[in-house]
Amino acid sequence: MNRMAFARLVVLALWSVFFVWLLVSGEVYRYIGPRTRWVVVFGAVVLGLAAIVQARSLRRGASATQLSKSEVVALAAFMAPMAVIVLIPRPGLGSEAASRKSTGLVGAASSFVPVPERGSDVSFPEIKYASESSEYAYALGITDGFEVELTGFVTHPDGGPEGTFALTRFATFCCAADAVPYSVTVDSEEEDYLDDSWLTVSGSLVNEGGEYLLQAERVTEIEEPDNPYI
Amino acid sequence: MAAAEALVLRRGIRLRTWAVTGLSPALVFALVRIFGVDDNQSAQTFALVFTAIVAEALPFVLLGAFAAALLEVYVPDRVFDRIARLPVALQLPAAAAGGFAFPVCECGSVPVARRLIAKGMHPSAGLTFMIASPIFNPIVLGSTWVAYNARGLGLEMVLGRAGLGLVLALVAGWAIGTEGAHGLLRPRSDDCDHDHDASCCSSKQESFSSHLIDDFLYMGKFLILGAALAATMQALVPQSLIGGAASSAVIASLALMAVAFISSLCSEADAFVAVSFTPFPIGSQLAFLVFGPVLDFKLLFLYGATFKRRLLGSLVMVAIPVILAGALWFEVALR
Lengths: 230, 335
What we know:
Chain A is an alpha+beta fold.
């Protein structure tokens, strides 16, 4: 048997199946952003076709090639992402990642704040920009008492006001590697929560010292949502 | 007798090898569970970022391998011969313009550039295409516009990125590609393409599939290595380390180039990350956007697989000063 061709067939077929599994299970949301989901579909189809071609050449007994050790290692490298998922199923970016991905710098010139889109939902980024620009807050109608409901996980950034915690959510664009954390400080009189607990917090925004805080009225502990990003 | 003993010995070794191969994954799995590695946040970040980079970038390598196989099998050699006869001064801007028409990010442009050079295009033109393509293509410039338009700087950033990317591609191509294909490309077993075709493939379709699979599997393994390194850095190195660099334009540009190298982001998404570096000067954000698609951890391995080692050093020597100068000029121009 042509071991090289067989090993290549296994790699191509497994990657095609892996991409199909990502799509069917919904796990694709965990790794890939909505804009680039098409690459997973493309990968599943083309690698599936490549596996079929490879299988046909194997059946015809195309020129026999033995598998060298370096080739075994190289093909095994292709299994690494799947092995990682078996070892660490459903990985997530939590409070530690939010801390690592923060540059530790706050504040920006008002010219760096986005132009608001009228009628857009108010979520983590909008509250961040409203804190940095009163024009932005005014354009979206964000003032003291503005009611919002946010879902995110708990973090405790250094230097946060006493008796508060931060509700954090990552935004992704292409994939989880480019995730950017957004946090809103929550003032909850009832209790504190452990890092990485997922909560839905509803309440009203209050401007304190230039930053919009969420004065919690109702806090519900929830399971991590299927799509953990915004 | 001795032959029989040798056979028994070989069988014993083979059995032990299979036993180790079979048991190792089970052992690793058990250790991960026993020591709770799967609950560790750094391990989770590594697992997520590593899998995400590979799952997102591997199809682009496939797309690049697809285009490279098309060039190899369906574009007649005489076309490349004609292109190769053109003056280099004409090939370079044409290659950069070709980058605009090939909308894939950096992982896809490397196998295509390799194939173009191997088919006879001037190495300078091949390198110019490789560097221009992930910066100077409509999807990347479109995402840059979307990200920065929200700040009211969409047009400026698109022009800055396209302009500096173009200058870098032309300068790097001109300066590095003088050595000729043999001095630049790392030899590969499938370089004798005509032999390859004759031995394995009876039709163009089979030849196409064979080149596609060869290129994909060859480049893919290096991408996986680079992704593992990038994910390790993202899981372990806090970005607050560069926080103090924001006050100086030069240091900020160098710091954000380092972040771009470590993060290994796709050029189609990096503008959304760059825009979040709000305290950093706008010129340093441009440096991030131009440096990342040219040099990062995953590209380090892809270049290593494709080119001889000295290309990497030359690329660093050219890219850093050109990008730094462009970023500082951009900073001053926008004031």
